[in-house]
Write a structure and sequence with these properties.
Elements (H helix, E strand, L loop, with lengths): L6 E8 L2 E10 L2 E8 L6 E6 L6 E6 L5 H15 L2 E7 L6 H16 L2
Parallel strand pairs: 3-6
Antiparallel strand pairs: 1-2, 2-3, 4-5, 4-6
Length: about 110
């Protein structure tokens, strides 16, 4: 679902798990939130496309989804040549296929905005 203020939200069901994807667009980047069951701020990474490789920093460390967070943030920042702030609150570790599907959904939402 898209709104005129640059806020996108979508529910995704994968492997009997339900994820809420929320994306807020800004002039110079995106804030992306991926949550499971509860709508909470969780682990957080920020990435800035500054040259050939993005600069990425962990704000709130993740116990299990550090690579997932980093990949999403870097892919978004590189694609838009801006800033990507990504937060995840996930109940249990993601299977690789679930992580790929979530990443595809997020990138599709950004591309179709």
């Amino acid at each position: 679902m898209t709104s005129p203020n640059g806020f996108f939200q979508k529910m995704v069901n994968l492997e009997s798990r339900s994820f809420s994807l929320q994306i807020q667009k800004f002039e110079n980047g995106y804030f992306v939130s991926v949550t499971e069951s509860s709508n909470k701020i969780g682990s957080m990474v920020i990435s800035l496309a500054a040259g050939p490789t993005p600069i990425t920093t962990t704000i709130i460390p993740s116990r299990s989804e550090a690579l997932f967070l980093k990949l999403i943030a870097e892919q978004i920042s590189t694609r838009i040549k801006g800033i990507a702030l990504v937060s995840t609150f996930i109940q249990k570790p993601l299977e690789s296929e679930t992580a790929k599907a979530l990443m595809s959904e997020i990138m599709e939402m950004i591309d179709n905005e």
